[in-house]
Amino acid sequence: MTTEVTGTPDETHLEAQFADTIGRKDRIEPRDWMPEKYRKTLVRQVAQHAHSEIIGMQPEGNWISRAPSLRRKAILLAKVQDEAGHGLYLYSAAETLGATRDELTEKLIAGKQKYSSIFNYPTLSYTDVGTIGWLVDGAAICNQVPLCRTSFGPYGRAMIRICKEESFHQRQGYELLMTMMRGTDEQRASVQESVNRFWWPSLMMFGPPDDDSPNTEQSMEWGIKTHTNDELRQKFVDMSVPQAEALGVTFPDEGLKWNEERGHYDFSTPDWDEFWAVVKGNGPCNDQRVNHRKRAWDEGAWVREAALAFAENSAADSAPTDSPEASSAAAPTNTTAEEAAK
Amino acid sequence: MTAHDTNEPSINIDHDEAGANIEHGESENAYSGLLVNDASWAFGTDFEDPLAGVDTTVPEGVDSRELGVYCQMLGDDALIFSQRISEWCSNAPDLEEDIALANIALDLLGQSRLLLARTAAADPSLVPQLPEGSPVPDEDRLAFFREDLQFRNVRLAEVPNGDFAEAVAKILMYSTWRLAIFERLQSSRDSVLSAIAVKGVKEMSYHRDFAGRWVLTLARGTEESKARLLSALDGLWPLWDELFETHPIEASVAAAGIGVDPAEVADEAGVILDQVFAAAGIDRPERGALAGVRGQKGRDGLHTEALSKMLADMQVVARQYPEGQW
């Protein structure tokens, strides 16, 4: 375990080694020495990311029961299930830094750790499932692809797998919207209405403007973050405009136009007041999302206790029929949708 | 992957031609590389007719309407139970259980799609009519455009969810019953039903195993978990007998060698359940069977109050867009 003490000769040497590893763009692994602040920053970021996956199950999960075709129901359920899987990988990455899943979940439901603010917006139509796939997962991918090269090994490796699945989700979302655009006038109107609602919140997913983002500089120095918020936001806008044209929808921004000189699209300033209101807990669904997670966690407490007690009882009994079941019953499966298909 | 070799009928619903039939025709489309085949397309999400390439000829000497209705019974069981289990999504005690319950719901959903597609192929007159030109496929017409009185699922599949103990008890009862039926159905003279059963047996062995392990865990975990399990089993037990009652259609298709008479598997299923109960150290509940109305039950289209509410929710978007493309 690392200590807070700095400045001793030993510490200076370790810090130099750490800086050297980062400088070579090598990975820091769980057993390596790391500055305590680096560890804390990572736990915060990985936990926030894991929480986002788990809270992110809710807005789309809201439409599983009402999906309008059996095929779409299967796609949606498998997608939301994948998000639970992503949460699992990320909590595991956080565990290598000494933070347990239980402890992080407790912090989430106590409001002490955050998750991506986008999930504090409501899903008001089934169409939102497609829009979330296209824009929200698209923005998430822009944010996450650079994280595959992040300096902490377990996080980077989890991100490689997650990004692969996220890009798959993005395609499914875009494909749903494409299909709806070929449908009836009502369906096309629904796609435009949904895009209008999600465009600005998607741009806000990259975080506050660079001059208002206190953690960016240190995180970039440590190789935890590799691009600034504004760089990624611009990249996302540039990517999305041609996609919207191919789809046949517009974005709700009068200021959106190609800037020949910059080689990028110009766009208006997001409503940062709304952004901060949502971040600070006053978004349309903040309470709902956290309360849902808290209810599920609280209602499951007796089951988790029973699994522990069963494992302990079985170990104590050491009856031959008990022992093999003890561990597997506590965690019967963690097969993902993709694995189930094999 | 299909469950069996080339000389048997095969149904491929795992890896699919995802997006293969998407036509957008704009070569400059920024997403042109996006909508192509991909082996990692999620489970059960195929774009094509689930029975594409499968010979759906009704075997000789079989009444095609009876075959269609029989497949509808089995398909409705799977669909309605899947819908209930999917309500657990984001609500399970921990992430592992959330994922496992979603897997079970996805397996059952996949089974229901095949069975309802078989219904439509066997007897198109069973499929609800929609406005001329509606692109809604048969499986979705059957799922989203029938009223509760036209659903033929057993009532166990539709009863509202309780706590996690209720979920595992219900899955244990359903999968023990259905697995025994599907094991026999593998030798159905209808090659489609036989292939569906071969696939389903693998899936439901896992479901039964999952539920059985949890029943054991809860029974021998804490006082509270045992009490909750007993209460769940007690509440569900009146629905057990209905699973083994023979509807005239089931008797007829069983006689024709394409279906299974559920009464035949009652003893076997009871023995398996008793084994689980014995390992768990609990007793089989003692409660009488839930009566029907004028003798009519789930298979006759006579349901609990819960089904029409579930359908109102499940069908609302599909019915809002009867000519929609999904």
Question: What does this 3D model show about the protein?
Answer:
The complex is a heterodimer of chains A (342) and B (326). Chain A has 342 residues and is mainly alpha-helical. Chain A has 15 helices and 2 strands. In chain A, a hairpin with a 4-residue loop joins strand 1 (257-259) and strand 2 (264-266). The two termini of chain A are 40 Å apart. The relative contact order of chain B is 0.14. Residues 1-47 of chain B have low confidence and may be disordered. Chain B is an all-alpha fold and 326 residues long. At the A-B interface, helix 3, helix 4, helix 7, helix 10 and helix 12 of A face helix 1, helix 2, helix 3, helix 5 and helix 6 of B.
- How much strand content do the residues of chain A show? under 5%
As a percent range, the share of strand residues of chain B is: under 5%
Based on CA inertia axes, which overall geometry of chain A fits?
globular
What's the overall geometry of chain B? globular
The total beta strand count of chain A reads 2
The Cα radius of gyration of chain B reads 20 Å
Helix content of chain B: 40-55%
Largest sheet of chain A: 2 strands, antiparallel
The residue-averaged pLDDT of chain B reads: 88
Unreliably modeled segments of chain B: 1-47
Q: Could you give the order of the helices and strands of chain A?
A: HHHHHHHHHHEEHHHHH
Task: Describe the secondary-structure layout.
The complex is a heterodimer of chains A (342) and B (326).
Chain A: H1 9-23, H2 36-55, H3 57-61, H4 70-95, H5 101-109, H6 127-144, H7 153-181, H8 185-204, H9 216-221, H10 229-247, E1 257-259, E2 264-266, H11 272-282, H12 286-299, H13 301-317, H14 323-330, H15 337-340
Antiparallel strand pairs in A: 1-2
Helix pairs in contact in A: 2-4, 4-7, 6-7, 6-8, 6-10, 13-14
Chain B: H1 64-86, H2 95-122, H3 138-144, H4 164-185, H5 191-219, H6 223-236, H7 248-255, H8 266-280, H9 305-320
